[in-house]
Design brief:
alpha/beta; Rossmann fold
Length: 133
């Protein structure tokens, strides 16, 4: 029964990569399908540990078949944004749909970061932009 439940659960947070660069720490997050509260409990501490290192943080969020957030995840996202309004320099969102592009418009008031959207075909350009001086 447990195995069946896992198959039907949303994937959410899929992967994190941390890459120290000359311009700061680039954190790449990969999300699939739907994020839930448990996803935030996993990756937020990882990001916050990088913030404690004192170097500027730049995020690259890759959205693959992304469907959004559960209510609990949306609340966690709001808390993270309020707490870290000034802690992220750049945020590149890479997606596959108009809905995903709209996410960048939605998040801009919640961060002082320079936020840009890139279509999935522009992923290399997004990686370059997030690392530019």
């Amino acid at each position: 029964m447990c195995a069946e439940r896992e198959v039907n659960m949303p994937i959410g947070f899929d992967e994190i990569q941390v890459d120290p660069t000359p311009v700061g720490t680039v954190v790449t997050l990969k999300f699939r399908e739907k994020l839930d509260k448990a996803d935030y409990e996993t990756f937020v501490p990882m990001i916050e540990s990088q913030m404690r290192n004192g170097s500027p943080i730049r995020l690259l969020a890759e959205l693959h078949d992304f469907e959004g957030w559960t209510a609990g995840a949306l609340w966690e996202d709001t808390k993270f944004a309020a707490k870290h309004f000034n802690d992220i320099e750049r945020l590149a969102v890479v997606g596959e749909s108009r809905f995903q592009k709209g996410i960048t418009v939605f998040v801009k008031p919640f961060t002082s970061a320079d936020v840009r959207y890139f279509d999935i075909q522009e992923i290399d350009r997004a990686r370059e932009w997030v690392r530019e001086a």
